[in-house]
Amino acid sequence: MLETRTAARLVLLDANMRVLLFRHADGYGREFWATPGGGLEAGETAAQAARREAAEELGATDADLVELWTGHSEFDFANRRVSQTETFFLVKLNSEILGPEVRELHQLERIIEARWWSLDEVDATRDPVFPVDLVARVREHATGAG
């Protein structure tokens, strides 16, 4: 059965154009890297969900958000097929992130690692990375074409 959901995803870039990705384990032997974020709750807009996810997954309660693009992906997670419409937001941080307060949530959500990646590293990895067009989209944005 196909599960349909809508999500807000967060794109964090540091001064060296590295992107923050989380490694997820779905509990069924699959692991993948993805941008932070998650599904919209009832009544939430994508921007509201992005702010909530920034607070929950990053510990960032004062992030500035810029909507970048909306896309669609299908993937397997926890023995179900998911069809997801997702809006991506560039996150501009005004404080430190990933403090100890978010580690418990990461464990609950099966986030097993957080890592900053160069775009070339993302391009070269054999690990699954979502969205699959992340590097192209970030480069588009960085050059002002997006």
Question: What does the model show?
Answer:
With 146 residues, the protein is α/β, with parallel strands linked by helices. The chain has a single domain (2-142), classed as Alpha-Beta Complex (Nucleoside Triphosphate Pyrophosphohydrolase), CATH 3.90.79.10. Helix content is 25%, strand content 43%. It is built from four helices and eight strands. Strands 4-1-6-5 form a four-stranded mixed sheet. Strands 7-2-3-8 form a four-stranded mixed sheet.
- Assign the CATH class: Alpha Beta
Q: Name the helicity range.
A: 25-40%
CATH architecture title: Alpha-Beta Complex
Q: How large is the count of helical segments?
A: 4
Outline type? globular
Mind describing the biggest β-sheet? Answer: 4 strands, mixed
Number of domains: 1
Main-sheet strand order equals 4-1-6-5
Q: What's the name of the CATH homologous superfamily?
A: Nucleoside Triphosphate Pyrophosphohydrolase
Structural class: alpha/beta
Low-confidence stretches: none
Could you please say which CATH topology applies here? Nucleoside Triphosphate Pyrophosphohydrolase
The quaternary state of the protein chains shown equals: single chain
- What share of residues are in beta strands? 35-45%
For this entry, give a set of tags.
alpha/beta; 4 helices; 146 residues; four-stranded mixed β-sheet; Nucleoside Triphosphate Pyrophosphohydrolase; 8 strands
Topology, pairings included?
Layout: E1 2-12, E2 18-25, E3 31-34, E4 37-39, H1 46-58, E5 64-77, E6 80-92, H2 100-108, E7 111-118, H3 119-124, E8 129-130, H4 134-142
